[in-house]
Write a structure and sequence with these properties.
About 65% of the residues lie in helices and about 5% in strands. By secondary structure, it is mostly helical.
Length: about 250
């Protein structure tokens, strides 16, 4: 018995297995050092905080679950009641625990809002489907400005939502990469244009050389034709002289 609840070894473990809820992975994984510290803490103190689950899916506590598996301990779980706003719950659980930045909170809120209607549509008491979060509501939930929500939305559409949520990227770093990519593309386009211009100049030079060669060839052939004409005229004159001489004889 540790800290008011019992955790058992492998012999006392149930066969129940849990999977990770998509919202649980939005904030990313612990690094190896932090996870090992968690394993050590649970080994020494027991699992102090229960793992929150919904329909055999872990909403919060995935790393505690993995640590208990590693230690062959029965995980202590808590089923969340119906009607809990999972996105807000996950954000609230992780915001203080992982020292999330404003951008991370905004990304988690927006990704969770995108996940909700696609997998488990939210409805009102009357059964009406709830529309996607407005910028105002999303900003209020994340505790950020509407401008931040708009910028995060743009990056999510560009495929960078997970990177923002886990903190592996920031709006500033993504903007810097975008500027760098745009500059590289501009340089590439400029290089292509220069290359095409050089190729065009090379082709023009080759055409000029070909024209000059053909002109020279034409002049050479014209000269040869003139020589042949002179030769024909000379031979014709000789023939006429021979004919005249024969007639006199």
């Amino acid at each position: 018995m540790r800290n008011g609840f019992k955790q058992m070894g492998r012999r006392g473990m149930t066969d129940r297995r849990f999977t990770r809820h998509p919202l649980s992975s939005l904030c990313g994984d612990m690094d190896a050092e932090s996870f090992q510290a968690l394993v050590n803490d649970i080994r020494d103190q027991g699992q102090l905080e229960p793992i929150d689950v919904v329909c055999d899916e872990i909403v919060d506590g995935w790393h505690r679950y993995r640590a208990c598996q590693l230690l062959e301990l029965e995980p202590k779980t808590r089923v969340l009641p119906e009607g809990v706003e999972l996105a807000e719950y996950v954000l609230g659980k992780n915001a203080h625990r992982r020292h999330m930045t404003a951008e991370q909170r905004a990304a988690v809120v927006m990704l969770a809002a995108e996940w909700m209607p696609a997998h488990r549509p939210a409805t009102t008491e009357k059964g009406d489907t709830v529309s996607p979060l407005s910028n105002e509501v999303a900003a209020a939930r994340a505790g950020v400005s509407k401008r931040t929500i708009q910028r995060v939305k743009a990056q999510i559409r560009a495929g960078h939502g997970e990177a923002l949520a886990t903190g592996s990227e920031t709006l500033r770093s993504l903007a810097a990469k975008a500027r760098k990519a745009a500059a590289a593309e501009a340089r590439e386009d400029t290089g292509k244009a220069v290359g095409e211009k050089r190729q065009e100049r090379s082709m023009v030079a080759k055409l000029r050389d070909q024209v000059a060669f053909l002109k020279t060839e034409v002049e050479r052939r014209d000269a040869r034709i003139a020589e042949l004409v002179e030769e024909v005229e000379r031979l014709t004159l000789q023939r006429d002289e021979l004919i005249e001489g024969g007639d006199r004889d």
